[in-house]
Amino acid sequence: MAADSLPVTTASSAPVHGDGAAELPWGEVWGQDAAVHALRTAATDPAGLTHAWLITGPPGSGRSTLARAFAAALIAEPGDENAMRQVLAGTHPDYAALRTEGVIISIKDARALVERSYFSPSLGRYRVIVMEDADRMAERTSNVLLKALEEPPERTVWVLCAPSEADLLPTIRSRVRTLRLRDPEVADVARLIQLRTGVDAQIAEQSARHAQRHIGMAQRLATDAAARARRDDLLRAVLRVRGVSSAVDAAAEIVAGATDDAKALTAERDQAERAQLLTTLGIAAGAAVPPAVRSQLKALEDEQKRRATRSLRDGIDRVLTDLQSLYRDVLMLQFGRGDDLINLELAGELRGVADAWDPARTLTVLDEISETRTRMEQNVSPVLALENMLITVAHGRIL
Fold it and tell me: Looking at the whole model, is its pTM more than 0.85?
């Protein structure tokens, strides 16, 4: 992929705060006042500006949104709202952002981004390179980035985003300034979701709680009744696991649910991309694809398959996160804490499990779920990994 065609993130053209007041470029950043203050200060004070930043925080905390806002503040002259909007929309020539659509960031894309970082700013004050999903780099890819961080151009600023510092190599961590984002409260996320979507307060609160304060996931749950029902069905299926047979059935149900979810998220986009490519190539709808351009269509299809693989694995990881919340609730009940449950709607079933198990068994299951997430990152078959985990749930021990 050429540097100029790197996938870019997008933002709305009119960021607003919860009170409706527009404020470029920080208006879309929510609940991170300390981080905004630190980056605003850095953007206006060259003496305090570091050439490489790492923004860390839990999924849904707004890492990418904050990185875009910082880029806009660095690139645009103060008060130049047009330039800020260009950066937020991903169209400014001095802004580049990479977010992988696959399971990992390819070394080819990383090299293209590094090459682009050596260009001098063409219109803005700085050239800003944002790498989302920086935790999805293999060691070889990380070393490509390391060279750019060791010898940065004078007016280039790198902004990396990852869940935590531990997700990156120590050599990279030593060359960046880390900014940690706070985890918002359920009530705060619920208010934001209600403001954005107009759903009633009960659904907003339930969605924020089930999403474990992940803003994007909470918004999806709040606006998609099918997604809420699918989550409930999968958790109940796991609670019904009693032996190998039911473990196998539940594993298949999880994979099928995650597959349906992934298809729902990608099918419409895939179809639109294909139609756009054919239009660009001058091929009418329904017409045969000439041999000369089939390679371009094949490249698009391969990219879409990689995106589908990531979407499926992300969906299964989301289910595993939900299962962690389920057995976290069981553990809370076992220690007499029923006032802070994530899955309140399943309180009766959870109390039954809490009474039937001892805390050691619950901890074993939680450890196995965590280990399953690690195995999934290592490309283990999802069905086999889930079956193994659910057999541990059924027997209370690792077999």
Answer: no
